[in-house]
Amino acid sequence: MPKVVEQEQTTIHSSYLVDNPRFPFCKGCSHTTVLRKLNDALVALQIPPQDVALVTDIGCIGLADAQFKEIHTVHTTHGRSTGFATGIALADSVLAKGKLKTIVLIGDGGAMIGLQHLVHAATLNVDVTVLICNNFVYGMTGGQGSGLTPECFMTATTPDGNIVPPVDLCEILKHSNAPFVARVSALDPHLASTLERAVRFKGFAAVEILELCTEFAVSMNELTGKSLVEIAEKNNWKVGQLEESHERLTFAERFALSKETVLPSDKSSREASVKVTKKPGLRKPVSIMLAGSAGERVQSAATTLCQAAIRCGLQVTQKNDNPVTQGSGFSFSEMWLSPGPVGYTGIEHPDIVVVTSEDGLRELVNQRVFDRLGPTSTVYLDETLAPPADVRSICTVPFRKILGTAYAAIGALVLVAKLHRLIDDQTLADTLNVRLGEQVPLLLSKVQQLEVSLLHSPTP
Amino acid sequence: MPRPVEHTVRLRSGNQMMAEGAIQAGCKFFAGYPITPATDIFKTMVDELPAHGGLALSAPDEISAIAYCIGASMRGYKAMTATSGPGWALMIESVQYALMTESPLVVSLVQRLGPSTGGATQGAQGDVLLAEFCTSGGYTIPVLCPTNARECYELTILAFTWSELLRMPVILLSDKETGMTVESVNYSTLPMMTSQDRPTNFAFRTHGEYNKHQRWGTYYFDAGHEIPVFAPVGGEKKVTATGSAHDKQGRLQKNSPETIDVLLHLEDKLRWRANDLAVVKSDPQSSARTLVISYGITSRAAEDAVKDVRRKGEKVSFLSILSLFPVPVKKLTKALQGIERVIFAEENINGLYRSVLERYCNGRKVSGVNKIGSMITPQEILSVILKK
């Protein structure tokens, strides 16, 4: 029996505009022309409507969304249309691996507000086509000047003629690595084919369309259709195809490649997870302050102690502080080691204070820590530091001399953990082995050296 | 003696747990701009989201970041960004856009001392009203506020669920202390659920007009509290999205009756479910006449103060609020029963959240423990509780 072959009926899209469109624009406004030519471009391309997203900005051109049927339309806030379009295009190309064509309709006002978004869309090279409808004024709000208003132009805000020269938007985008840039008059007979090529282009495409705002720009400046190209020339704006490169990969393509070519590595910022089987040895919470200098691994020393603590079933909090510049000055960690959950994470009366450098000491003095010591507080000060007045229970220890600057902080904490029986030796050693590897035996022997010298030194 | 259960514990900051919660919730898109003290959320997403099939990238500024997120949400993906006060100020216009377009979105606001640049490395609780009252029209935006690293994870998953089910932006409000303090987190007891998804199933509308007339509209609903079925930009159903006041089809209208209905619906859809969204930790003490209320980082000090007060033999009740908005009226009212004096502790000058809850305190004596520049201590709260 002959096989019946079903023929797929391909829909021909004869128009993407609503039936009998009634454009809301003023008589003679070239926005009407632009939308008709955009429609012609879409008809030539025959993209399925569900694969088209038209993102419109604020202003007269922003009203374009209501003129189209079946395609997706997104009317956004002023200047941000390119930003929203970029988000849509990124999600479509990278996450959905889709084939959405995103088109932005934006005026000269929106383009200047959202210049950052235009530039970034160009540098990302997302598949977005931006049509900048430049009629030299803010039309909808009464014809005020914009960043693209030509010199000497009369506008509502430049009644004596504009004295601020406009920027060359196409040059800006060219220098932002935009692979497709064109400038064209709205009355150019080849506008539709320019728009077709721009939409078809895989990647970022920008077309600046020079337009006539009949209500304001034209009425105040004696403009005609021919004037558009003359204005461009007067401003040294080149007209035509200014850039077209098929060499640049889109963001999605580069992103996919970067995933393939980079060797998979554990870039995760996770601290090692710890399996806890022990019950905590501490009976009550202990607060520890560690103060030293940036670049001396103070905060990582605190992390190591906290890792050891959680290994033996304690709950911990660690608060770090340093100047905003991060690389210099003091480095400070406040820790709570507790058998139960920690509530308030601050330390009003520290049980143990460890100071390994002058920067650290200065910070503690600034924070008035030495005014807040309790009756059982103990302070461990590097021997190079001058003890603050009126503070009893200070142990001076040659942290820096014996351990060196890189290990003074961790060595000090290990010493303190042993002296105060915060954490058992095995857990300390296990944790140190994970974090410091080969250095551990030397470190532990130096700490023992300090421990011995402390036992023999006179107590204050 | 039974073998102790082997638990996995990690040292994590609130910021890191927020990012992990987002990934667990199914977030697939993160666009960010670094700002102290929120940057680690961004960094953790950049490091970990790709392995879960998502995209995390740098935006050149906060406005771009949130715009990219909303675009991705419109395309159908769970999206999030994170910032602090100065960045939030830039994002407010777009948050309103997400609200008006009924786009799910999660924004993490990690508070720092203000105003303006303020103190980047100093915590505060000064943005609670700025987070909520950021819309023209005063629409209620859900604001969730964790007190520790674990809650950062749990509430982030909840934030995604609400934002998806309600189709609206949800704010996660924390601060420098909650965000950047590292704590031991027991991973063996973390909830493993993902968040719910926005409604995309047309078939579930089984009643009335929809089935009869096959009506589709980007923002279509029958009763005002219903959530319009979501269709992605790029999908089969034509989407007509707009930040302008619109009818149920998404068409720009001035003030037609249907447009007003849509505007009312934006509030209605949340109000109708407000009681379900309430998350509090209530610790009443029978015959207590004083109630301490707090949220976020200050809740931890308040909880310690309450313990100390009770150890001294005095009675005091405690309410820690995790869902700041919509105000959990029912649970608040219950906590206020029998109470004569309410003490609000929060790290801002004017008692910002107190000013919102005061109207529910009905003649009770209300006082605040307020401070800026450092965390409120348990001692500071305790002395106010004990002061007669």
What would you say this structure looks like, in words?
The complex is a heterodimer of chains A (460) and B (388). Chain A contains 15 helices and 16 strands. With 460 residues, chain A is an alpha/beta fold. Chain A has a seven-stranded mixed beta sheet, sandwiched between helices. Chain A has a six-stranded mixed beta sheet with strand order 12-13-11-14-15-16. The longest helix of chain A has 17 residues, at 440-456. With 388 residues, chain B is α/β, with parallel strands linked by helices. Chain B is 36% helix and 19% strand. Chain B is built from 13 helices and 15 strands. Chain B has helices at 14-25, 39-48, 62-74, 85-100, 128-132, 149-166, 176-180, 208-213, 257-271, 296-311, 329-336, 352-357, 378-386; strands at residues 7-13, 29-32, 55-58, 79-83, 105-111, 143-144, 169-175, 182-186, 240-242, 280-283, 290-294, 317-321, 323-325, 341-346, 365-370. In chain B, the strands form three sheets. In chain B, strands 3-2-4-5-7-6-13 form a seven-stranded mixed beta sheet, sandwiched between helices. Chain B has a five-stranded mixed beta sheet with strand order 10-12-11-14-15, sandwiched between helices. In chain B, helix 1 packs across helix 2. The radius of gyration of chain B is 22 Å and the shape is globular. The termini of chain B are far apart. In chain B, 56% of the residues are buried. At the A-B interface, strand 2, helix 2, helix 4, strand 10 and helix 10 of A face strand 1, helix 2, helix 3, helix 4 and strand 8 of B. Strand 2 of chain A pairs parallel with strand 9 (240-242) of chain B.
